[in-house]
Design brief:
single chain; ABC transporter involved in vitamin B12 uptake, BtuC; 76% helix; globular
Length: 324
């Protein structure tokens, strides 16, 4: 899976409104360590300042959303659960829209920071509404709380959309559909650290996730502290998703499709499913972003449009497969 991600990333470096030969790309990547140049200055700029950071950023975001989908589907025992099921997307979107309206884009990480704060508020509200502070954290309560909180934020987003001017409306709409074009070294580094740290914490709970999927009663008898595990996974997974959404916008269907695909190939053991989902999620979003850059080149589509176009047929395939 890692080699697949590398291959897709190298191919994506070649493709775009300006095509760069594969051999030249490979030579340039090799020569980058020796300090010699094999491309023109314009191609070097496109390759290392535009495409490479964007591919790495797409990989990090795709991995984050895929891990979130795998965890939520296991924890809630719901095959349709994804990182946005608890309203994290709505909270992040409301924070980002508030930042666009008040001009927070003029500050470094202004909009991502407000989007992240909106996601944190959402996680806190869902946790409180679901009764996590009063007793056991029930799956149905989490789902319903997420739906209610997301509905409230959606109404607030529609209100802001109806009062902003046309320039702000374009920025807001593009962000709501997912945008990977703003990748910078600092944002990539921050997202990578959050993903790596969160993945280590989640992977340490892989055995507990396997038991919870079987049944909570079985997990309890085998010594799993179900409430502590659920709360830890909820918080860590929500934070990983919040970081991805706050920097890249709302990119749907990745967290639903990728874990399902990996279960079909590798099975449901989370010790294998989690890293496989992360790597294939990274590859999938790089492919989607490359298509978004190519379809209307030199203009770009929001990457969320591509993932949505892939997600609908995949759901139809799952339904047909299940009926057979």
């Amino acid at each position: 899976m890692f080699l697949l991600f590398l291959a897709i990333g190298i191919i994506s470096l070649c493709l775009g409104s300006v095509h760069i030969n594969l051999i030249n790309v490979l030579n340039s990547l090799t020569n980058a360590f020796t300090g010699t140049a094999s491309l023109s200055s314009q191609e070097e700029l496109i390759l290392f300042s535009v495409r490479l950071p964007r591919i790495i950023f797409a990989g990090i975001v795709g991995a984050s959303l895929s891990i979130g989908g795998a965890v939520f589907q296991a924890m809630l025992r719901n095959p349709l659960a994804d990182p946005y099921v608890l309203g994290i997307s709505g909270g992040s979107a409301l924070g980002a829209i508030s930042g666009i309206i008040i001009g927070a884009s003029s500050f470094y990480l202004g909009i991502p920071l407000l989007a992240f704060c909106g996601a944190l508020v959402t996680v806190f509200l869902v946790f409180v509404v679901a009764g996590g502070t009063r007793g056991p954290l029930l799956d149905n309560s989490l789902l319903l709380s997420g739906v209610v909180v997301n509905a409230f934020f959606s109404a607030a987003i529609l209100f802001f959309l109806s009062i902003v001017n046309s320039l702000e409306l374009h920025s807001i709409t593009f962000w709501l559909m997912g945008d990977l074009s703003r990748a910078s070294i600092r944002e990539i580094s921050l997202a990578a650290i959050c993903l790596f740290t969160g993945f280590l914490i989640i992977y340490a709970q892989a055995r507990e996730l396997n038991l919870i999927v079987q049944s909570e009663e079985t997990a309890l008898h085998l010594g799993v502290n179900i409430e502590r595990t659920k709360q830890l996974l909820l918080i860590v997974t929500s934070l990983i998703t919040a970081v991805a959404v706050s920097m890249a916008g709302i990119i749907g269907f990745v967290g639903i499709m990728v874990p399902h695909m990996m279960r079909l190939v590798f099975g449901s053991d989370h010790r294998l499913l989690l890293p496989a989902s992360a790597l294939f999620g990274a590859s999938f979003l790089v492919i989607a972003d490359t298509l978004a850059r190519l379809v209307l080149a030199p203009a770009e589509l929001p990457v969320g449009v591509i993932t949505a176009l892939c997600g609908a047929p995949y759901f139809i395939f799952l339904l047909k497969r299940k009926s057979l």
